[in-house]
Structure formats: structure tokens, C-alpha cells
Specification:
The chain is of the alpha+beta class. The chain is built from nine helices and 15 strands. It has three domains: 114 residues, no CATH class; 42 residues, no CATH class; 159 residues, FomD barrel-like fold (Beta Barrel). 39% of the residues are buried.
């Protein structure tokens, strides 16, 4: 391991990333007082890489000298299950100018690193090795940071209540908000970081970690992606989202309730928030038209995302496997029906 791997870490992922990186030989530079106490850090180093929360806290920015910055990103790619990495260009960095201490110049790199649900849960477990941590810690810190701190203060004094407090936090901060007729945004995050907002979905049901949403369809005259079926202004969609599932199902209906087709989006495990659901689209999809066999589409887009460095090869292979298993299941169901 290089001796110049000196990283300063700030934000809601600090404890987990400090544990993960320090265990792998990185030196922690200028730790906060609480981090210094938790890890018994005495010596203060001047950082050559800065890792800090993205503005939406859905991951971190990694910026600094090229060699150690690249080493950090490669370490995260090796360890975290569904991480998405986007290297920033010089123009993107200058436009954002997030951190003034480290200027991007020859020999420096900047990365946008997204932590989907699987990575957040992994980091929850890492953090729990160091201090009291409720389940879904990092997701809930995005929702209500101070309230998470209160739950974990109780957990430190009453560790036997870990499961109870974790369930209470998730129920209070997220689940109680997911009531019928409430509208949610679907944050469909593309591998390159752009977000497609699929329109609001009105909650029909929420039960057993499953959301059923009703959505109006816009774009009359165009066709549904993958299905090739024309849209009409009276069409609507019923979207089924299960928390933690890598599949999001959209069923499209005409105004008189006739099924036009089904679209199964393959994605990182779905996250629920009080006002939205969120996932990273893995590009590959499965479509099924009425009385037709299901088929996989957009494999080429997934391969392009891998070639661009956004998605790891292992994540891509996992996505293909999910699509193949889904086609097999749907084919059996079609035969039986």
C-alpha cells in the first residue's frame, strides 16, 4: 500500500468509510474530534484526497491527487456491492467548484460515487462495528439526521432494543408517510447520474414492503419503450415497487382497463423515502406484451454503461442473471395461464 494515501473524510458516511479505508492501509487525515475518539487517532496528516458527501447525500465526492484518489475508488468498487462511479471532467469540476482546497489540475482526479441501497446497507454493517447503529442508518440519515442520532443515543444505553428501535425509526420516518392517495416521485437514476422523473405515482396500496402506484401517462402519439405500443391520453400505468427488489414493474392499460403490456425495469435494489422511491437503472429490461413471450431488451445499453465505467462487470452480470430468471418465470406463468 502506498504511503501517500492520506484521506480526509466528512459527512454521514464518515465512520463507515474511516473503518473501511483505515483497515486497508489508508491514513486518515485531519479527523473530526468524534472520529479521532472512535478510532483512537492521534497523529494529524495533511490530506491529498478529500471524501465528502454529495449534496443529496446519496454518495460521496472523491477528489484529490490522482493515484490515491483512484486507489480509494478502486477499493470501494472491490468492497461495495452496487456502487456506481462517475469520473468528472475538468469542466464539470470547475462548474461545480465544490471544494476550494483541492483544485483539479493535471495529476488530480474527481469522482462522483453513488451508494445505492446495497452499498448503504453494507456501510451500515461496517459502522455498527464501531458504534451503535440502527438498521438503515445511512438511508434514514438522509431523511432525518437528528432523529437518527436520537434513536442511536437510546441504542447506546439500551443495546438490547436494537431491532425494536430500528423498526420504530423506519416506521416513523418512512413507512407512516406512505399512505393511500399520497403522491410519490419515482427517481429513475441513470448510470451517468442524470435523473429521469417518471411522473408522480399516487399510492393505491402499501403493504408488506410493497407499494402499488397509479400513474397517468403522457406523450400521446409516441410509443412505450420496448413495447412498441402506441400511447393514448386515456392510458394509465400501475407500478409495483417492492422495497429492496431489483425489479420495478410497470403495467400499462388503456382507459377502459385493457392491458397493453408490461415493462420490468432491472435496477439496483429499490429504496423507499417519505416522498419518493429511488434506484439506479441498470439499463437492461424485460418486456411482455399480452399473449406474447417475454423478452430481454437493451442489453447493449448495459454494456455501454460498463464500458463507460459507471457500472462494474459483476453488477452487469448480476443484472443479466436477474433478467434471464425473470424471463424464465414469466414464460412459465404464461404457459400455465
Amino acid at each position: 500500500m502506498m504511503s501517500n494515501l492520506k484521506v480526509m473524510i466528512r459527512g454521514i458516511y464518515t465512520t463507515a468509510l474511516t473503518k473501511l479505508l483505515s483497515d486497508r492501509g489508508f491514513l486518515i487525515a485531519r479527523p473530526s474530534p468524534i472520529t479521532a475518539e472512535r478510532f483512537n487517532l492521534g497523529r494529524v496528516y495533511e490530506e491529498n484526497v478529500l471524501v465528502a458527501d454529495r449534496s443529496d447525500k446519496q454518495g460521496v465526492e472523491v477528489e484529490g491527487e490522482a493515484e490515491p484518489a483512484e486507489a480509494i475508488v478502486q477499493t470501494l468498487l472491490q468492497v461495495l456491492p452496487d456502487i456506481v462511479v462517475r469520473e468528472k471532467t475538468l469542466s464539470e469540476f470547475l462548474a461545480e467548484k465544490i471544494y476550494s482546497r483541492l483544485s483539479l489540475q493535471p495529476g488530480f482526479l474527481s469522482f462522483d460515487v453513488e451508494f445505492p441501497r446495497g452499498s448503504k446497507l453494507f456501510l451500515d454493517r461496517v459502522r455498527s462495528q464501531i458504534t451503535a447503529t440502527i438498521n438503515n442508518h445511512h438511508l434514514l440519515k438522509i431523511v432525518a439526521s437528528d432523529l437518527v442520532d436520537e434513536y442511536e443515543s437510546l441504542l447506546r444505553s439500551q443495546p438490547e432494543r436494537a431491532e425494536e428501535l430500528s423498526n420504530l425509526a423506519l416506521e416513523t420516518l418512512v413507512y407512516r408517510k406512505l399512505t393511500p392517495r399520497v403522491s410519490l416521485t419515482i427517481q429513475h437514476v441513470k448510470p451517468d447520474g442524470s435523473i429521469l422523473r417518471l411522473g408522480e405515482g399516487r399510492i393505491l396500496y402499501f403493504q408488506g414492503r410493497k407499494l402499488t402506484l397509479h400513474r397517468m401517462i403522457f406523450g400521446e402519439g409516441s410509443k412505450y419503450d420496448g413495447l412498441g405500443v402506441p400511447k393514448a391520453s386515456t392510458d394509465y400505468a400501475v407500478t409495483l415497487a417492492e422495497e429492496g427488489s431489483p425489479i420495478l414493474r410497470h403495467s400499462y392499460y388503456s382507459g377502459d382497463g385493457v392491458l397493453k403490456g408490461e415493462f420490468y425495469n432491472i435496477n439496483t435494489p429499490i429504496e423507499f423515502y417519505p416522498d419518493r422511491i429511488r434506484y439506479v437503472d441498470l439499463e437492461i429490461d424485460v418486456v411482455r406484451r399480452p399473449h406474447r413471450q417475454p423478452e430481454i431488451v437493451d442489453v447493449d445499453k448495459l454494456e455501454e454503461a460498463v464500458e463507460s465505467g459507471f457500472i462494474s462487470g459483476s453488477s452487469a452480470e448480476a443484472a443479466k442473471g436477474i433478467a434471464q430468471r425473470l424471463v424464465a418465470e414469466l414464460s412459465v406463468a404464461e404457459i400455465r395461464s
